[in-house]
Amino acid sequence: MGTLLQVKDLRTEFHTQDGVVHAVNGVTFHVDEGETLGLVGESGCGKSVSVLSVMRLIPQPPGKIPAGEVMFQGRDLLKVDDEEIRSVRGNKIAMVFQDPMTSLNPVLTINTQISESLELHLGMTKEQARKRAIELLKMVGIPEAEGRIDDYPHQFSGGMRQRVMIAMALSCSPQLLIADEPTTALDVTIQAQIIDIVKRLKRELGMAIIWITHDLGIIAGLADRINVMYAGFVIESASNKEIFANPLHPYTLGLLGSIPRLDAALKSKLTPIEGLPPDLIEMPKGCPFYDRCRHRTEKCANENPPLDLGAVRHWVACWNWQDVQKARSKQ
Description:
Elements: E1 3-16, E2 19-32, E3 36-40, H1 47-54, E4 63-72, E5 75-76, H2 82-88, E6 93-96, H3 100-103, H4 110-122, H5 126-139, H6 145-148, H7 158-170, E7 176-180, H8 188-205, E8 208-213, H9 216-220, E9 225-230, E10 233-239, H10 240-245, H11 250-257, H12 298-302, E11 308-309, E12 315-316, H13 321-329
Parallel strand pairs: 3-8, 3-9, 6-7, 7-8
Antiparallel strand pairs: 1-2, 1-4, 4-5, 9-10, 10-12, 11-12
Helix pairs in contact: 4-5, 5-7, 7-8
């Protein structure tokens, strides 16, 4: 299984009246063919900005990508021209956004919106594109697809609109699907249906997935590997099983401690992460988690730890990860 996408030292910033917001600060990760990578972390940690930078969808200005490399099929997507990046978007790399109502055009029919990419990227005629659009709607579980293909977005429920978005993303059989918190606005039963659809389509089509979420419960049953992000950095990276069984970063430990567990004692309390994330305009010199960390030392205040190998095939950006591991084992 080869590497499909390789991101190296990606940095993204936004120039505002208050100063430069350092949204992504040297992120490095990869996605292998056919695997699902989870990007997790609290709101504002840089998850969405990272993948929007990969797709070159950051508005410039105010945004800017001052450094980084995004290698996909032998090309650096940050350096190709506009025509070439358009040939990649929606064709080889597709994206499902968080809110389908703002992503779908309210004045165009579903057929028009799905058929557009089929005609553009695959050269289909209108009739061929319409037939394929109906097949895609059936694939994602929309009943009576033939009768609904000419409906408008407002005629669908939230869950059905998200299915339409998935159908649009899969229209050209992409090699990589990026899902940016696609179930956040949906109720739990619809969330489960959308996740099951994505799992099934991944098996059938063999595509790779980057799934962005702040919900560890969702990612537990979905991802092969997980990258935990904080303040624009990847601070821990390991397999799904390893992250949940053996978290090495105090922030990851805090995330896991703040979600309810069925196997926990009845009287056990959730443990919140105290404090607030750092100001992304005035970034700290040392570890960005320093002010909220229970394992901090003087070195943490002065030096930001790199993402380095901790346990076997487990990378962590923490000077004191062994202390975290010992403290967790005593709990």
